[in-house]
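Researcher: Here's the sequence for the chain we discussed earlier.
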Amino acid sequence: MPKQSHMMHKPLSKSEASEIAEDFEDLVDTDFTVNKSLSYFIDNVLISPFDMEDKKLFVSNFHYSKDKEAALSFYNGDQFDVIILAYDVDDESSYIYIDIRTFVEQRGISYNFPS
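Model: Thanks. This is the structure I predict for it:
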């Protein structure tokens, strides 16, 4: 049984993830603050594998290639998530990623995710 990266969140199908990523494309090129000190610039809203280890590998691949399809090419599973990839405004080599459902919850954004 694959381990869950988030207890409350279920994996998405690829089509669900595509639709959600499309709905949140407007976040690209905006910024947000973490802990009132660090500012991050949203670079991408991406479909990623759901499993945490696969997600880390995907983000690393994408960070170096900037190619969504190539970064995901290693993954043969059918459980997906949508993540926001953001760079530190003051240091582009520093980046974070956060799954879209956590991002939305933390910011009080209303969105009807598939359950």
